[in-house]
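Tutorial sheet, problem 5. The four components below are modelled jointly, 428 residues in total.
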Amino acid sequence: MAPRLVKNGHSFYVPVMPKVTEEHRAARRAQIVAAARRCVIEQGFHKTTMAEVIRESGLSAGAVYGYFKSKEQIVEAIAEEALSTVDELFGKLLASEEPLSPLAALEAALNHVVSIAERPGGDVTRVAIQAWSEALRNPAIMTIAQGKYAQVRGRFEDVARRGQADGTVDPSVDPRHIAQALFGIVPGFLLQRLIMGDVAPGTYTAGLRALLRS
Amino acid sequence: MAPRLVKNGHSFYVPVMPKVTEEHRAARRAQIVAAARRCVIEQGFHKTTMAEVIRESGLSAGAVYGYFKSKEQIVEAIAEEALSTVDELFGKLLASEEPLSPLAALEAALNHVVSIAERPGGDVTRVAIQAWSEALRNPAIMTIAQGKYAQVRGRFEDVARRGQADGTVDPSVDPRHIAQALFGIVPGFLLQRLIMGDVAPGTYTAGLRALLRS
DNA sequence: CTCAATAAAGAACGGTCATTCGGTTTTTCG
DNA sequence: CGAAAAACCGAATGACCGTTCTTTATTGAG
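Model answer (structure tokens):
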């Protein structure tokens, strides 16, 4: 519902804004996204039909299409949401504990994955996996994924640099490569959690630590 | 085309086998799978239409449906193929080099990922990511994924046990957890390779090794 | 070579689904 | 309160797509 140009009493064309409050529109939008998220978690992006999203949202087709131009836009909104959740952690994490070892940051990240997976509103990590898949053929989602994950890797890079300054991490290795390795552990954990269902942050990092001695 | 029971000249019902050789049928099947794989790599499971697979295979609708009962069966065949490729490596790897450290096995696995990604016939790792996504809502693919990945993890577990026997790996840690951690590094590498496009096995494992000192 | 049965072909069908659009309700503002 | 515009509704639409089915070609046996 883009503002349209209409003639006012002074014979000027002015933009006409929505009649409802911006909060109302935001709430409706969130309502649609939440409904769509539930559908996507159960059925995936492609098997989810607009009819289901519409029913689940409690709105009508016309209303939903007043907020999103197409199904693809809803999918993008959900994908972005899912791809953003990993980074949430770092705001709190990096601010608080001053001496933060890379492995401690990683364990915090894995714990964060579990906590967002168990959040009410549905396991968003399921959406993340679908977003990876979708990114391969949807340039918009690919761009979102690249941006979000570059950001997370930047966070890990900071942690690596800090470790090198502390002397706890080999300073001769490019911190970007350390960040790649650190970040890359998260998808493997997340995937095994959903497919195999037998991993836990504590034992996972323990297994990792045992390796470092080889 | 299952063999049917027909009455022969001796009044017995016997199975009637296809008129063409079994090799011919296998070749045709492979032809269809290869065509479908190309389509799926470009467009994904869901955006790939049977019309495209049919055109790409050079066959007709009737012919294709003589080899696969449905699109879903083709998808399953491709997913299984993609989920199997990671394990290919271990047959050669575990047989040859006797002293095999876990990190060496991992680096070999990452190199293997790159080599299968560059194989002619298309980057199968793209299909693997889609298979993960699909497994979340398709029980058949979920079962395949669980089986294949349990197998790969079993291989890594053997390697971990060997390392513990050698004294190069902490023997107090459950080798299953070490296997989880080792295996879990592969998806993260594969994902970053496709999404970020800036990882390489050598520097990746170097980044990992730098961590182990913290 | 002839016959019978399989294999392949491809046009047609039926169902599904995203989206639209004309009508109705609700909201805001003078 | 009354008018005008936005917000909402939901049945209708038209494109797309997996699958089938009838017809034709090919194969191998006798």
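Marking note: Strands of chain A lie at 4-7, 13-16. Full credit if you identified this.
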